[in-house]
Design a protein that fits this description.
Length: 368
């Protein structure tokens, strides 16, 4: 009898120095630092530096990386045209197309040195943020925004989305969200990126694989569905009945459950804290009350806790971000983790090639 592991649960495919997820303790660490510490005290750009170099940057290093990412936000005209052509598509399809095209026109695309892959990674982090922002502006009929190279990613993005000078508090909160989503061990999209890399394919191809994987409802695609669900439920009083009905019909409630965390996702705790801080700053408290009620009911009835996609949904909603941009925001942050994993995979590679147990027919013949 062949031993099977559908879903690869609990399988370790290698070693990593990037991030550690402890599903029993509810702990997430990037390169030795807890996610709470990084999200609340550091910036997304600091986190990118940490993921790639293993230490936090000094002031010069921070500025150099911030500028490198910022300058790459000016997209090639062909990419803007592709985003225009995709303006009616799902935003994840649009940014997947943009990354594919960016690979096709990047002159260093086939340079597989560590230096080139690192430079491509930093470029891609800026370009992906710009692709999401540009897609949004095209779709809303807004004019292109001048790329202010002094902006960090969070300020640039909030300005692009809101089409006004963003509130400092919103920028800070959004920056923390980017840090919270940057890496998460061997999650499905990172695994995709590593599988593609393991065939000795290029960095852009691996990121395209990862974006396709992140899109799904059981992974990054859950966050926009959470907000659709909250809008459908409508009020705190209806939350319990909604959960009961979903559980009775064996429907999954988006934003709950996790393959690794068996306790409250530490990112969800920080996101809830950030949501509390948004009350009185334009956030309608009813979303937080409704979310808290769902968490209570799910815990009591199914012993399942919320994941990162739960509290991020209403938080983004309170910042005026359109629902279908939530998963692309996940991608514009997670691209940093994907690329760091791609480099790590390249440094210690073995082709990933699992097997399937064949259960189809045998002994057929084409001869009459
Ligand atoms: N709603 C209702 N029931 C759930 C949920 C949920 N969200 N999640 C798990 N369960 C139940 C299952 O129905 C099953 O119940 P049963 O034993 O009574 O049949 C039990 O919990 C175990 O479910 P599995 O699918 O085996 O657990 P798994 O580890 O594969 O689940 C997953 C992980 C896929 C994320 C799941 O929790 C889920 O579908 N969640 C909703 C989608 C979501 O929020 N995805 C984002 C995850 S975080 C991220 O990727 C960024």
């Amino acid at each position: 009898m062949v031993e099977m592991n559908q879903g690869l649960e609990g399988i370790h495919i290698g070693e990593s120095k990037l991030s550690s997820v402890d599903g029993q303790k509810g702990e997430l660490i990037y390169r030795g630092y807890t996610i709470e510490d990084l999200a609340l005290n550091r910036t997304f750009e600091d986190t990118v530096f940490l993921l790639f170099f293993g230490v936090l940057p000094d002031a010069d290093e921070r500025e150099t990386l911030r500028e490198q990412i910022a300058l790459s936000r000016t997209l090639p005209p062909a990419v803007v045209a592709a985003l225009e052509a995709c303006k009616d598509a799902h935003p994840m399809d649009a940014i997947r197309t943009a990354v594919s095209l960016l690979g096709g026109i990047d002159s260093a695309s086939e340079d597989d040195s560590v230096e080139a892959n690192r430079a491509k990674s930093f470029r891609l982090i800026g370009q992906l943020g710009a692709a999401v922002a540009t897609f949004h502006r095209i779709r809303e009929g807004l004019p292109p925004l001048d790329n202010n190279p002094n902006d960090d990613m969070a300020r640039y993005f909030m300005r692009s989305i809101r089409d006004e000078e963003p509130d400092d508090h919103f920028v800070r909160v959004f920056d923390a969200c980017l840090t919270l989503h940057a890496d998460h061990g061997c999650n499905a999209s990172t695994f995709s990126a590593r599988v593609t890399t393991s065939t000795m394919s290029d960095l852009h191809s691996a990121v395209v694989s990862a974006i396709g994987t992140l899109k799904g409802a059981l992974h990054g695609g859950a966050n926009s569905r959470v907000m659709e669900m909250l809008l459908t439920i409508g009020s705190e009083d209806e939350a319990e009945a909604f959960v009961d009905d979903a559980l009775a019909h064996k429907r999954r409630i988006m934003g709950f459950g996790h393959r690794v965390y068996k306790v409250f996702d530490p990112r969800a705790k920080v996101l809830r804290e950030l949501s509390v801080g948004m009350i009185g700053r334009g956030a309608d408290e009813k979303w937080l009350r409704m979310s808290d009620r769902m968490v209570e009911v799910m815990k009591a009835k199914k012993d399942i806790d919320p994941n990162v996609d739960f509290y991020s949904a209403s938080l983004y909603y309170s910042m005026g971000i359109p629902l279908d941009i939530y998963t692309p925001i996940f991608a514009m942050s997670r691209v940093s983790g994907w690329c760091a994993h791609i480099l790590e995979q390249k440094a210690s590679n073995r082709l990933m090639r699992p097997r399937l147990v064949y259960t189809g027919p045998r002994d057929l013949t084409t001869k009459a």
